Amino acid sequence: MGVTYIIIAGVVGLIVGGLLAGFFIKSNNKKIEEEAREKAKSTIREAELTGESIKKDKILEAKEKYLRLKSEFEEEVSKKKNILITNEGKLKQREQILSKEMEQLKRKEAELDSKKENLNAQLHAVQVKKEELDRVTNQRISDLEKIALLTRDEAREQIIEMLKDEAQTKASSQIKDILDQAKLTATKQAKKIVLDTIQRTATEHAIENCVSVFNIESDDIKGKIIGREGRNIRALESATGVEIVVDDTPEAIIISGFDPVRREVARLSLHRLVQDGRIHPARIEEVVAKTEKNIEEEIVEIGERTCIELGVHGLHPELIRMVGRMRFRSSYGQNLLQHSKEVAKLCATMAAEMGLNAKLAKRAGLLHDIGKVYPEEAELPHAILGMELAKKYKEHPEVVNAIGAHHDEIEMTSMISPIVQASDAISGSRPGARREIMDSYIKRLKDLEDLALSFDGVNKCFAMQAGRELRVLVDAENVDDNTAGKLSFDISQKIEKEMQYPGQIKITVIREMRAVNYAK
Fold it and tell me: What is the pTM of this model?
């Protein structure tokens, strides 16, 4: 019993506790729900307030933008309106000006019409007078024809024939007298000018040979120049392209070669080597290279000095260089620079005697043979080549024509051209001034070298022993030993087919292989 009561009391307690707990939970849920509703309402109110604020801001912003655009539009309209008003005022002014001009034109047109009427009246009066004059003239001619029994055309032809015969007779007589007098005077005057010119510009001439003499202090130096087994002299001949003759001539060494530039390079190189005392193949090549560079500088200096001496100014630098090259060229044995200087002086004197431009004539005389020193081979005659060079470097047209016409390759178009031709003939025709054999001999040697240089692999080529030996230096990398022998044969065959020469020519092909290193 007691236990049962206890159990029943416990169950009842549990039920009561559950009911109380449910009541409390339900009460708590209602509070939470009410709080959530209040919070949602608060959020909605805040959102509505925020939306209203944003809406008001956007409306204000739109109104401001509208007002700004309206102001800009009104300002633009005002500007355009002002421009239209201004343009309208200008148009009115222009209309007034055009109106005034039209009135002036109408007045002028009226004046012109009045003048035109006056001129027409005057022309009519003149026409009437002319008709009256023609009538009177025809009447008088008709009366004369009746008296002379000749028509007007017949009388005119008779008078013309009489005057023609008389004029021809007198003209023929006068022309013959004038021509005879002109020929006599011209011949005397030309002889006088030429003789005066020759006397005033007399110059000594010496034919250039193909050898130069290098003087030494003692014969002991000859051994150093020859070197061990002749290697020094061979190196010097290979580098310069001349023949060095060391014989029993006391205190002298002969330098033989047809090219004056090569002989001068060899002479100066020998002078420097002897002064320095160090003579060996490497030193020889170094000295020869420096000497060739110095010769080029000397050529320019000679050209400038010649122009200053003759008073020829404004020459192109390349023409000045060509004038300097003339110092080392000869024409039939006559030094080309001395010949050109003399021709320039002769031209200046003749031009002055004839009342022409002496400076222009002197310039043409100096440049008349520049075609002979052109560094490249050309198929043109030297006069035409010189004319093209002068034209290229903007020389005066009269100078260009004088250069091209001094051997009659082109037609002479100025008075300076025959002066240059006559001066060239005077300078070259003096006794002892030139030697024909020398020029043909030098040309043959030059053609011999050019023939060998036309083969592939040939670096240098030198004609020796007056053309009896041809030394050919080849590139060791491109020409081997077998090819060197074939090259020598091919050159000899081409010489036999294309050249004429006395005796025989020895062709020596030199192929030298060098290995050079430096110890550091």
Answer: 0.45
